[in-house]
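From the pipeline queue, job 12 of 40. The input is one protein chain; the requested action is below.

Action: predict structure.
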Amino acid sequence: MTVPPNASAPGPGWYPDPAGSGRLQWWNGSAWTGQFSAPPFQAAPAPHPVAPRRRISDRTPVYNPYIWTIVALPLVPLILLMFWNPVLRLRTIGTRQVQTIDPASIFTAPYFLLVSISFVVYGVSALLAYLDWDRLRKDGVVRPFHWAWVFLSRELYVIGRSVIVHGVAPRRGLAPVWATIGVTLLVVVLTGLKMSAIVATLANQAATI
């Protein structure tokens, strides 16, 4: 082919490639030169807008037992911690039978129970977050805060969930946030007091051994 389609004697210029490559090829007035240009810029189609979350009825519940249990779960290991009272023991080392404090003596059955319960609470929180997320969807909340965020932080899930619920149910939905703040402060304060008491007790035991 020696001339562009639909043209009898075109002048030199860029024309669509007759081979159908989608690019422009230079026509020198008598023949194709084999020089190509990039196709004209075409703007990408605009992304499909995400539908806004619609408000839910004032009669639709925004709280359920799952979210309240998530909020209260940290109290379980806290209660166990209050009953943990480690005691130092002596151990004999060396050929001279020297007695010294055994630092591993605090790792008793109650200690491992406390650690195990903490992992159980973590797993139960994930299960409850899924059930809470599923309940919100069934109650008409569009795109509720995803339950998997609980793996990163229980507090993060509660806050994200409450913000979205508050957006579709004005004047409601933020109670779990305030409850979580209260529980977290309680856990931090009581844990600090308990650990201080444990350290003081162990120090006294070490001084008397």
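Job complete. The longest helix spans residues 175-208.
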